[in-house]
Amino acid sequence: MLDPRRLRNELPNMASQLARRGFTLDTERLSQLEAERKHIQVRTQELQTERNARSKGIGKAKAAGEDIAPQRAEVSRLGDQLREAESGLARIQAELDQILLEIPNIPHESVPVGKDESANAEMRRWGELPHFDFEPKDHVDLGADLGMLDFDTAAKISGSRFALISGPLATLHRALIQFMLNLHTGQHGYEEVYVPFLVNSASLRGTGQLPKFKADLFHVAEQDYYLIPTAEVPVTNIGRDHIFAAEELPRRFVCHTPCFRSEAGSYGKDTRGMIRQHQFEKVELVQLVKPENSYEALEALTSHAEKVLQLLGLPYRVVTLCTGDLGFSAAKTYDLEVWLPGQRRYREISSCSNFEDFQSRRMKARWRNPETGKPEPVHTLNGSGVAVGRALVAVMENYQDGKGRVRVPEALRPYVSDREVIG
RNA sequence: GGAGAGGUGGCUGAGUGGUCGAAAGCGGCGGUCUUGAAAACCGUUGAGGCGCGAGCCUCCGGGGGUUCGAAUCCCUCCCUCUCCGCCA
């Protein structure tokens, strides 16, 4: 959520900043509602002041043993006006809140302006693209040949966009998770957390998935729970409705969870293989930091995700998302794209974002600033470190040996009983 | 699933329908003392909103109600804890 005060005081400026990412702010509607709000709020407060004063007077009169019946009747009439004013104020406030919750974050000044992903800016590349003296297969064929990746049976059990992984390939999948968790806790200073996979709507509102993106979520209607689309939701909400002491920051969390996405609206997109699934595993990095440190933290967090790919020997590139490709809540995002020989292209495997105070304002995640003595919003960041399913795909495709087998990257061998090859 | 207890400020915890935004303690901050620190003592310290400002308003789990007036009474929902049952 944007700072409502800035939205009031610098409306044209806010509108032009939002226009950079292709969002049209209805400034006329907003300033009209705002004027109404102000008028009715002042009116309400005046009535409240009067009622409070008179009621106190009645209390005193009663204590002094006076007859209070006439005064009571008078103040009673005041109550009707007050009720009316209060409900009017509540209605306008609700309307304003609804609009406010659907306005996206303002892009950081360093974010390139552009309409879609074609305007994203490549920052750097790492690693050599593998050369094969055979026609490289994609992970679907590799998995089928190994007999360890089965989409048909998964479809029987559940439906489309699910996978059944078995045998040593399932072990390799698990090894990736352990490897990533150990790296981030051991080398990068993150605290491991285990969190609920079902969350309430307040948490999703906090990180920005609700109210606007309900269709992307799986909802358990009976109990009004949602399956998490990413660990970002439960982990960032650790700080919801909390005031951190200055010395408690930064908090750095790493968390492995399954992620559940309805993928509504992506029909026909990435239908082959396990690139886009309803359920996948991810190791997530989340940071809650002092505002002054958040851009430094974004660079660090991104480098932590990169380290995973470097140690696995997977070639990748880093891309800054342009304003039009930026997620709803993000002020700046780096995508890590890994090379997939089966597709002959780079595919997203991690997305690292600084949300500044957009999420923290929604969820009231604050810290006490010693300079002011006041609670102020923290800055929140997160990034995949990295997506496990896609990492498995990348390992399979980059480490295939042309004989239907997959070599195990050195870094993973300790996690698979020193096995060197699958198949 | 059954029975009971409870949700109050950064934390713990009092609170008879009427100066209760709320005692007390802890913590924080400032000061006295000290070479410095600790202890002790004194003072100070909730959050959000409106207003240039004096100031005003809201908030005692959420929502609704009763009343001139609600932390306090009523309804409802949520959550936590204890015991019993069931269970990975």
Please, could you describe this protein's structure?
The strands form five sheets. Strands 1-11-12-13-16-10-9-4 form an eight-stranded mixed β-sheet. A three-stranded antiparallel β-sheet has the order 5-7-6. The mean pLDDT is 92. The protein starts with a helix and ends with a strand. The protein is elongated, with a radius of gyration of 27 Å. The relative contact order is 0.14. It is an alpha+beta fold. It contains twelve helices and 18 strands. Helix 7 crosses helix 12 (388-398).
Structural class: alpha+beta
- Helical amount among residues, as a percent range? 25-40%
The largest sheet has its strands arranged as: 1-11-12-13-16-10-9-4
**Total count of helical runs of at least 4 residues:** 12
SSE inventory with pairings:
Layout: H1 4-9, H2 11-19, H3 27-63, H4 69-101, E1 121-126, H5 139-146, E2 149-150, H6 151-157, E3 164-165, H7 167-186, E4 191-192, E5 198-199, H8 201-207, E6 219-220, E7 225-227, H9 232-236, E8 242-244, E9 251-260, E10 279-289, H10 294-312, E11 316-320, E12 332-340, E13 345-356, H11 358-363, E14 365-369, E15 374-377, E16 379-387, H12 388-398, E17 406-407, E18 421-422
Parallel strand pairs: 4-9, 8-14
Antiparallel strand pairs: 1-11, 2-3, 5-7, 6-7, 9-10, 10-16, 11-12, 12-13, 13-16, 14-15, 17-18
Helix pairs in contact: 3-4, 7-12
This protein binds one RNA strand of 88 nucleotides through residues 38, 41-42, 44-46, 48-49, 51-52, 54-60, 62-63, 68, 71-76, 78-79, 242-243, 245, 368, 370, 373, 375.
